[in-house]
Write a structure and sequence with these properties.
The protein is an alpha/beta fold and about 260 residues long. The chain has a single domain (about 1-260), classed as Alpha/Beta hydrolase fold, catalytic domain (Rossmann fold). The chain is about 40% helix and about 20% strand. It has eleven helices and eight strands. It has helices at about 45, 70-85, 100-110, 130-140, 140-145, 150-160, 165-180, 180-195, 220-230, 245, 250-260, and strands spanning about 1-10, 10-20, 25-30, 50-55, 90-95, 115-120, 205-210, 235. Strands 1-2-4-3-5-6-7-8 form an eight-stranded mixed β-sheet, sandwiched between helices. α2 (about 70-85) crosses α3 and α6 (about 150-160) runs antiparallel to α7 (about 165-180). It comes from Anaerosphaera aminiphila DSM 21120.
Length: about 260
């Protein structure tokens, strides 16, 4: 894939793109908190056969550092800049965890440019889904994480994110490259900002994925409520944790492809 970047007053946001000359449909993969674009390395070969594919390093992650004035609103503007540069009118958004927040923000502010949204272990915008006691932990996550020696934190976080050795190693390497200072900055800003947005009433197809063994917070419960309230299809990925698209990539790729073929 070709590495490029867009630049604004906030900083540079890097992305990787591979176009398919036989397809007019584009998938944009957005990784979660403290990961980077390599979270989707198990999807590239599969989806570039039939789609244009873009992966990004989210602001404050990977190569997209330094970056100032972070918000999911600003991130949605960065995504729009990428699409404008590549002359792509609409995109299918696939967001893992906090990457799902960036995707929801884009769908909120640019619904006319959103073809579909696929969530992997993310949760919905909208304060009505969350108890104050639950938000306390996200508000103070960086304070708690600061107490751990960083290599220990990386090992614990990797094991909590993925259940496969390959997935754990991939996520561990992302964390090590990110470093403790930037990890704390990103987690503080991301967790605090997601509460600032109203729930999205999608005007496009939506599919929710959750790893069958995802043990992060209350994500399973939030997805059940989200699915019920908005009548959205919810698929459990067997033998997979929070990084479900990496843990069981074959299942995820096939089910995503089946879903997309219904509309594109």
């Amino acid at each position: 894939m070709e590495c490029k970047f867009i630049e604004s007053s906030r900083g540079k946001v890097y992305y990787w793109i591979q176009k398919n000359k036989f397809s007019s449909n584009t998938i944009l993969f957005i990784h979660g908190l403290t990961a980077d674009h390599t979270l989707f390395e198990k999807q590239i070969e599969f989806f570039t056969k039939h789609y244009n594919v873009i992966t990004i390093d989210m602001p404050l992650h990977g190569l997209s550092r330094p970056y100032v004035d972070f918000s999911f609103h600003n991130t949605s503007e960065d995504i729009k800049l990428i699409l404008d540069r590549e002359e792509i009118n609409k995109t299918i958004l696939i967001g893992q965890s906090a990457g799902g927040y960036a995707a929801q923000a884009f769908a909120l502010f640019y619904p006319e440019r959103t073809s579909a949204f696929i969530s992997i272990g993310s949760t919905p915008f909208g304060s009505n889904y969350y108890k104050k006691s639950e938000l306390f932990w996200t508000d103070n996550y960086s304070k708690i994480a600061r107490l751990f020696p960083y290599k220990l934190y990386c090992r614990m976080s990797a094991k909590n994110t993925c259940i496969t050795e390959d997935g754990q190693n991939s996520f561990y390497n992302c964390l090590v490259k990110l470093g403790k200072k930037d990890m704390l900055t990103a987690t503080n800003l991301y967790y605090r900002n997601f509460k600032n947005y109203d729930e999205v009433n999608f005007s496009c197809p939506v599919l929710l994925f959750i790893g069958e063994k995802d043990s992060v917070g209350y994500i399973k419960r939030y997805n059940k409520i989200w699915s019920k309230n908005k009548k959205l299809p919810l698929i459990y990925i067997p033998n997979a944790g929070h990084g479900a698209n990496y843990d069981n990539f074959n299942f995820f790729n096939i089910k995503t492809d089946e879903f997309l073929k219904l509309y594109f």
